[in-house]
Structures are given as structure tokens and as C-alpha cells.
């Protein structure tokens, strides 16, 4: 089954465009990783809700290999300014138990 990692990031008002632009201009290193399936950057629709950066992996081992890679270090080498984000959020990790995609079981 798939492995999902959500990174919840509280972006302070006025920094939303910069946050989103950084993902649009990303190097794409994650796309080349063995076991990588998908990435989604989710824009919040409610007050005070965080952005969610969701990645899907074939396994927890594939995710851990990415986090330990030089590509991961390069992808995270230029963080947002400290004033762009607020406290809270963090990583959530899930193993998919059941799901459907476009009408088929996964």
C-alpha cells in the first residue's frame, strides 16, 4: 500500500504568493526519487488553516531514503524567511489502508 506524508505549514499573511511560487519553481528533485508517486501543494480555504504539502510514496522506506538523500538537502537548502511562517503544523505520516482512484481500487 502507499505511504502518505503531509507537511502542514502555517504561512503568514502576505507570504502566500512567495510560498506558492517557490513550489512552482522547484528543482523537481523529488520527482526523480525511487518510490515517489505524487506531490500536491494544497492551499487552505479556511481561516488560519495551514497549507498542506502532501507527498505519496510506494513505501515508508522510499520516503526515508528521500529524506536521507543529497537531493533532499538541495531541495530544502533555501528555506522561506523566518517571518513567512508561523508556529504549528508539522509532519503527519500515514499508511494507506484502502482507497480508490478514478473508479479503481488501489
UniProtKB/TrEMBL annotation:
Pfam families attached to this UniProt entry: ABM
Keyword set includes Oxidoreductase: yes
Keyword Transit peptide recorded: no
Classification via PROSITE patterns: ABM
Molecular functions (GO terms): monooxygenase activity
Residues of the ABM domain: 3-94
Keywords: Monooxygenase, Oxidoreductase
Source organism superkingdom: Bacteria
Signal peptide (residue range): none
Protein name from the UniProt record: Heme-degrading monooxygenase HmoA
Taxonomic classification: Bacteria, Pseudomonadati, Pseudomonadota, Gammaproteobacteria, Oceanospirillales
Amino acid at each position: 500500500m502507499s505511504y502518505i506524508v503531509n507537511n502542514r505549514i502555517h504561512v503568514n499573511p502576505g507570504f502566500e504568493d512567495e510560498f506558492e511560487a517557490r513550489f512552482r519553481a522547484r528543482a523537481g528533485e523529488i520527482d526523480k526519487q525511487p518510490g515517489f508517486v505524487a506531490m500536491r501543494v494544497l492551499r487552505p480555504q479556511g481561516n488560519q488553516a495551514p497549507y498542506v504539502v502532501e507527498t505519496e510514496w510506494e513505501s515508508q522506506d522510499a520516503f526515508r531514503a528521500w529524506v536521507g538523500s543529497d537531493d533532499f538537502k538541495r531541495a530544502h537548502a533555501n528555506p522561506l524567511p523566518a517571518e513567512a511562517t508561523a508556529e504549528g503544523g508539522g509532519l503527519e505520516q500515514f499508511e494507506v489502508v484502502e482507497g480508490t482512484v478514478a473508479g479503481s481500487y488501489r
